[in-house]
Amino acid sequence: MAQVSDVADNQYSRTKTLRIARYNPEKDSEKQFMEFSVPVEKWTTVLETILNVKQHQDHSVGVRYSCRQATCGSCGMIINGKPRLACFTKVSELDSDVVTVEPMNNFPIIRDLAVKFERLFDTHHKIKPYLDRDDTELESDAKEFLQSPEELEQYIQFANCIKCGLCNSACPTMATDSSFVGPQALAQAYRYVADSRDKGKDSRLKIIDESHGIWRCHFAGSCSQVCPKGVDPAMGIQLLRGYMLGFKS
Amino acid sequence: MTQDEHKEGFKGMANPSRYGIERVAYWLMRLSGLGLLAYFIGHIYETSNILRGRVGWNEFLELTQTTEGHIVLAIVIAMCVFHTVNGIRVMLGHGGVGVGKPARPDYPYDPASQNYRHKIGIYSAIILAAIAMMYGLAVMFGE
């Protein structure tokens, strides 16, 4: 049986074309694509093909990565037109002989496939991503803040966010509005608003209740479709808006 | 918006092809909204012709009695129906209605907010718009 599997695996082995967007904002006026032939197996990820190019063909390709297991959120990029994690996308699932990789949209480019995350981290920080209350569990005579499993279910999905930025890259509002808070930060605002231990709901809602805040989301849902961790930012944003419109208490 | 920000821009915002029917609905909503706004402005201009008296009013009204005028009106009917039905869906969604409940996600992480209720709402809006447009065409060209 193992032999049959090996034969099937070997039958998949082939060479594909990897098109990498090259751009150095300090030197280049526009993005250009370079093509490389890369060997792939059915389990080969897009990140592995990029690293193959760096190792054997062109070591100057700029790419950011770390964990290789969809945990660190570093290797987000546009793969065949859609924002995806390179380490979480197998070449075989793309069903194409040409794999095109570009830097994520709506993020300033550092070089080639690496983009700046300052604005994402700024907006994330802006919504106060921590439990906002006067007391703390860390004091010697304090008890831990208890929470029922049902209360945990209200926000745990949104705590899976790895801040990879794919949602901000797919968002149609982010595509044109430089000041929009973005789906990542708004989903995290919901994560803390829905946390029964948090007492900062009113101040947090005030932060996002502005012209470039939550009201600029038009529920296109693209953020949720590209999220590699099942966070579903669109759901969080609509539930958050439900709080603000008085549908939920 | 500058090149430094690497924004996808209007071209990316208006591209309905990559993210499923929800993004198509988003695109149609914007398109029909702008179309209805243009019609509204044209309608105000058209009705202002009443100030030119009965002859002037009738002269302008004849523009809508042509083949092109009928097609434009049929498109307006379709835009109006789609914008209304999809608008109700979006308004309910904005209030957190029908977007699912938070739960621990399981691979392959199908987003609960893009559930069948919303898909039915989108397809209903498109089908109702098409039916209304065809009815309008039948009435206008069936005279």
Automatic annotation (TrEMBL), chain B:
InterPro entries: SQR/QFR_C/D, SuccDH_FuR_B_TM-su. GO terms for cellular component: membrane. It comes from the Archaea. Keywords: Heme, Iron, Membrane, Metal-binding, Transmembrane, Transmembrane helix. One of its GO terms (molecular function) is metal ion binding. The chain crosses the membrane at residues 24-45, 71-92, 120-141. It is found in: Membrane. This is Succinate dehydrogenase.
